[in-house]
Amino acid sequence: MTAFKRLDKGGRIDRSKTIAFTYDGARLFGHGGDTLASALLANGKTLVGRSFKYHRPRGFLSAGIEEPNGLFTMGEGARQEPNIPGTMLPLAEGLSAKSQNAWPSPSFDLMAVNGLAGPLFGAGFYYKTFIGPFKKSWMFYEPFIRRAAGLGKASETLDTARHDAQYGFFDCVVVGAGPAGLAAALVAGRAGAKVLLAEQDSELGGSLLSESSATLERWRMDAVSELQSLANVTTLVRATAQGLYDGSQITIAEHKSNGMLFHVIRAKTIIIAAGATERPLVFANNDRPGIMLASAVKTYLNRFALVPKSRAVVATNNDSAYETAFGLAEAGVAVTVAELRPSPTGDMLAQAAALGIAIFPNTGIADTAGDKQLRQVKLAGRHSVTIDCDVLAVSGGWSPNVHLTSHCGIKAKYDAKIAAFVPGGFAESHFGAGACLGHFGLLAAVRDGESAALAALARRGFTKKPKPVELPSVREDRPYHIGTGPRLSDIAKPAKAFIDFQHDVTAKDIMIAHEEGFHSVEHMKRYTTLGMATDQGKTSNVNAIAIMADLRGIDAGTAGTTTFRPPYSPLTIGALAGRSVGKHFRPVRRSPLHDWHANNGATFIEAGLWLRAWYYAWAGSTPEDAYIKEMELVRKGVGLADVSTLGKIDVQGPDAAEFLNRVYVNGFAKLPVGKARYGVMLNDDGVVLDDGTTSRISDTQFYLTTTTAQAGEVMSWLEYLLQCHWPELKVHVASLTDEFGGMAVSGPKSREALQLALPGIDVSNEALPYMGVKDVPFGGTTLRLMRLSFSGELAYEVHCPANFAISLWEHILTAAEPLDIKPYGLEALASLRIEKGHVAGLELDHRNTLDDLGLGKMAAKEKPFIGKELRLREKYQAPERWSLMGLELLEPEKKLRGGSILFAASDEIKGHGRGYITSVTWSTELDKFIALGLYQGGLKHEGEEIIAAFPLKDEQVRLKLVSPHFIDRQGVRLHA
Amino acid sequence: MRLPCPHCGERDVSEFRYGGDATRVRPAHGTGDLKAWHDYTFTFENPKGPHTEYWQHVLGCRQWFKLSRNTATNEIAGVVE
User: Fold this and answer.
1) Which residue of A163, A445, A820, A930 sits 20 to 30 Å from the alpha carbon of A830, by its own alpha carbon?
2) Are strands A732-735 and A740-746 parallel, antiparallel or unpaired?
């Protein structure tokens, strides 16, 4: 059964080119210039899918981006992409399309049984049905519902398309290349402005592509060739403007052969010539395959050379559909017009009579018949006759595409003259032209385009007046006239009268929403799911609002419209991600020693953006084995660790000491040259911001280090203070994080190791005591030696310019080989500090005060410092605050987990407890699991036995609260 | 949204870091006045409309500056001296 036949001549198709494609496994043929939709219609495929809820047979409603029914799953395997409108897809050799929501095929669909249950699936069906009978009903039902529903399936394998992003800057971006857009781009282009013309269709021309007039085609071709000859004009096809954002940023998604190119454009001016979308009429069984928008029938006729086989009915409430009726009649189709108004306007009657078209005034459609496609139309009104036909072309009027202005937060306003919404205004430097303003008419569009471009040029300061656009020599526009919108009282079977075709929302559903109090258009939308399918209600929105307004006895303008948000049409997530996928999802930071680690058996771990050496193969093949061996290395011998990721800031100037004295809670003014000090800084609110050691290099120069995690934050904070609040301080700060590499030489044999590595440099306890710092020349550069320890052992840090880092690292390993020196990684580094009770990122979580972390004694009594006032707030001084404790596992056969919730022994294990575990490690010194954590009341409870619960695994273990300093409390090792 | 860096010129907002209300007056360092610090840190206006804010060109020249921005429309009136 076929509704259309292809003409032997005419149209924009290239009959010399035959294109083979696959549809549901069958091999079919089309021509150059076809879309998938036109090729399927030419092959007699009128029924191409099943509807979402009721599995009703559906065919193409439109010939454009608004298509709600003719959606396909394209491609195979990794490139499989669902929900592609066949109307927007140029036919290409080898293209493979599958119909959706039908099994095993659209014409024999087993799920169509849902249609019999029609009344059950009305508005609010899911909410009402699946809420009971027990508390978690929805969670129980949901997976079943999801399986039965859903349009098309995305590929589950990695997308192999190459999507990309491109940034652009233009004087003028023109959205839409219909007559208005072409005229606008011509004028702006002639004036020398840098212009981008973006068109979602595969050719420039918009509505002109659906015309049969040779005069118009000549005008279109002249315009296109002139635009293409202008070097300052860029034209894009298959490129849809998807969103309009602050600062006149517009995004355009362009289909390329191997993926999407996502344009992010800064436009000095934007001309929106986005056109209008035709609405269907609302009547019983208005969704059968063969019922199409009148404009689509015209497009299939004039552009794709497809005519209804023998007989068509045109039903309309406005004048625009007559062009379709006349075109069909001229092509030899028998045409009947059902005119909802008392009469068409102007010269229509005479022209219709001349073409032998019968017009039934005051007549709507009562019902339709047909199984898998339309067979018969029953007219309503005074002439209740039935007509056998192949195609029913419907027009309920035109809705300007107001989406882009709506993206800017400008509400659309109702224009009763055209019974539709128009843009409520335009942002500064944005202009509109043509049908999207509600100016329906070819010459109006051209004139609009020209004046919008002149306004845009004036705004950009172009003074030269460009040559005006030649109007095509066609007859003056007919005035647009439209009758009343849909009313529930006119609809025979509201439950079968579809408004949103894609989501199967009927006039009855709107009625139910109204009866149940969902009056506001936003409520009605969500209750019925109208406009929430992939077509976003392009054809349904205005009809639904008209019916709701009718039910409420108000006008559509008062009812208002829902808010349109980007994207304008469905967009694959890949297009937004572009090439920021996989390893390129975010930048990777590598230490200057990275290559050495990679070549010498390191396993890496992500720490923020950094890739850090986690553990080394020499110590074991799993982190659990390796870190323990690496810890033992540092506790008993000597190890070498990469600490280059620490934030490093050079602080210089006569007021550098005063500056640091203000920033840190402890004193830095009197720090002697050649000494380092551990410092803690607070935010204004009295919470700990960061810690680290800072060394005095000279009277006016300090070398400040931060934690890896807070390096950027601290740098910005110091700049903020100096630039915004303390400009009188003569201090400059510069980040050296990437300029310097750093390595920790740790363990009882670390001094010996340095003596072997740096002969002639005195690293004795006298020359370089604990917290001593000195710069020493070595190997043509300067090393900064600092006697610092994160592990609690005798240890040093050696910092050097980044490009010397690998050779210094290798040199130390070679020179100290007799001591059996080995590298150790982040896991061991972090475990050693837990044993020592040093806080790190897990404890410095921007919620803890100095006292919470046991560092209250560091705060200077006399001098002021940032956060001093607010850290003394009552709540921050409360004795029951959660504060830092050590924890020892009492059940050796069990495991201790980070994040466990802590409870007193007598507590019920429920809720948030009295604290939590921040960091856990196996202690090689104590031969048991130990942890740091925060516990209510802190050290007051030292020695008590408590419980750590890990509800995710339903585990509970007994612990003892101890001092957070597990080893060497007197610091003997540090000072050795 | 594009912001005018006083040093580098107009740049995309993604290069900047937001620094909050710039109409507040920071109490002098070491005032020791709990209430003054409390009010400065926690109680400030969040106006809908024109506002002066701190911004830093953090992925550029790193300059902090005061900017007049309409919080409702994102219109940028310019850098405030």
Assistant:
1) A820
2) unpaired
B63 near A CB under 8 A: yes
The reported pLDDT for the residue numbered A487 is 87
Q: Does B28 touch chain A (CB under 8 A)?
A: no
What is the average pLDDT across B57-81? 95
With tokens 């079943």, the residue in question is A144
A264's tokens: 């992010």
Strand partners, A166: A263
Please give the Cα distance from A152 to A148 (Å, whole number). 11
pLDDT, mean over chain A:
93
Q: Which of B2, B34, B40 sits opposite A247 (nearest CB)?
A: B2
Contact residues, chain A to chain B, C-beta under 8 Å: 245-247, 249, 266, 409, 662, 684-685, 716, 719-720, 723-726, 863-864, 866, 868-870, 872-873
pLDDT in tens, A12-63: 999 999 999 999 999 999 999 999 999 999 999 999 988 888 889 999 999 9
Strand partners, A692: A679
Give the pLDDT of residue A125.
62
In the predicted structure, residue A364 carries a pLDDT above the cut 90? yes
A70-74 long-range Cβ contacts below 8 angstroms, 24+ apart: A70/A37, A70/A40, A71/A100, A71/A151, A71/A152, A71/A502, A71/A534, A72/A36, A72/A48, A72/A97, A72/A98, A72/A99, A72/A100, A72/A152, A73/A97, A73/A98, A73/A99, A73/A100, A73/A152, A73/A153, A74/A98
CB distance A930 to A631 below 8 Å: no
Query: CA A286 to CA A276: how far, in whole Å?
Result: 21
Give the tokens for residue A273: 């010539």
Reported in sequence order, the residue ranges of A509-625 that DSSP labels E, i.e. its strands, are: 589-590, 602-607, 610-616
pLDDT tens for A700-759 read: 999 999 999 999 999 999 999 999 999 999 999 999 999 999 999 999 999 999 999 999
Chain A contact for B64 (CB, 8 A cutoff): yes
Window from A408-412, A485-489, A638-642, A960-964 with minimum mean pLDDT? A485-489
Give Cα separations from A744 to A641, A967, B66 (angstroms): 5, 19, 42
- What φ, ψ does residue A622 adopt, rounded to 5°? -125, 155
- pLDDT over 70 percentage in chain A: 95
- For chain A, the farthest-separated pair of C-alpha atoms sits apart, in whole angstroms, at 114
Rounded to whole angstroms, the Cα distance separating A713 from B51 reads 24
d(CA A740, CA A591): 10
Number of residues assigned to chain B = 81
- Contact status of B19 with chain A (Cβ, < 8 Å): yes
CA dihedral A44, A46, A47, A51 (to 10 degrees): 160
Residue of chain A whose alpha carbon sits nearest to that of B81: A724
What token pair was written down for A48?
């191409």
What's the confidence (pLDDT) of residue A216? 98
- pLDDT over 70 at A970, yes or no: yes
Chain B hits for A726, CB-CB cut-off 8 Å, are: 29
Q: Does B1 touch chain A (CB under 8 A)?
A: yes
N- to C-terminal Cα distance for chain B?
Answer: 21
Q: Which of A264, A869, A871 to mutate to test the interface with B (most CBs of B within 10 A)?
A: A869
Q: Do A870 and B38 touch (CB under 8 A)?
A: yes
Q: What's the pLDDT score for residue A146?
A: 54
pTM for this prediction = 0.88
Q: Which residue on chain B is closest to A717 by alpha carbon?
A: B19
Task: Give the model's confidence band at A101: pLDDT under 50 very low, under 70 low, under 90 confident, else very high.
Answer: confident
What residues in A contact B1, CB-CB < 8 Å?
Answer: 245-247, 249
CB contact under 8 Å between A719 and B56, yes or no, is yes
d(C-alpha B10, C-alpha A628), whole Å: 53
At a CB cut-off of 8 Å and minimum separation 6, what does A954 contact?
A: none
The reply to whether residue A720 touches residue B56, judged by beta carbons under 8 angstroms, is yes
